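Appendix B. Extra example for self-study. Work through it before the problem class; the solution is given directly after the inputs so you can check yourself.
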Amino acid sequence: RKEVEQDPGPFNVPEGATVAFNCTYSNSASQSFFWYRQDCRKEPKLLMSVYSSGNEDGRFTAQLNRASQYISLLIRDSKLSDSATYLCVVKPRSSNTGKLIFGQGTTLQVKP
Amino acid sequence: EPEVTQTPSHQVTQMGQEVILRCVPISNHLYFYWYRQILGQKVEFLVSFYNNEISEKSEIFDDQFSVERPDGSNFTLKIRSTKLEDSAMYFCASGGTSSGANVLTFGAGSRLTVL
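Solution. Structure tokens for the complete assembly:
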């Protein structure tokens, strides 16, 4: 089983749509969780951290379910500029160096 | 906003040659990392470096690879005897301060093409 698993997509949605991405992780001892955004041939950039209580940043909402080892990202009112690959990222508790484990990413294409 | 800078942005080399990829991490960060991303694949951890030594490395980071912090600012990745399968984007990242924050900031990457 992959350490971090995501549906690669692509998700093709019209502007203004709401879209949700899911991610599962295999290591129940994982410590911290993040969503990163990666534009084509660019570096990953932190979108948001994910907390057990769920958290929201503008149009973006992240949820964590530790019991199911499941993370989600909801994007409301999609913009053309949201088109990118969204990476689910986990920091394992076994590592004290800040090492991150990346999922393969889910590609979002927002169409006019 | 502070950033991680990497050079070169693109390097083309012949199989069997040695390459050195350079990174300048954010100045008050304590942890430094190299990751790589083969085209179409996920970002993979290679190595982390703290207090002037390797603190963790992956199975990928074998004897072909080495890292060094030769002065107070640069952090380098050396790849000896390059192979075709070393072609990838190599990302440097830094994170962690004395206050404990540990969000990683990535550089723009160095694209390595091995012919």
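Self-check: Chain A is about 0% helix and 55% strand. If your reasoning did not lead you there, revisit section 3.
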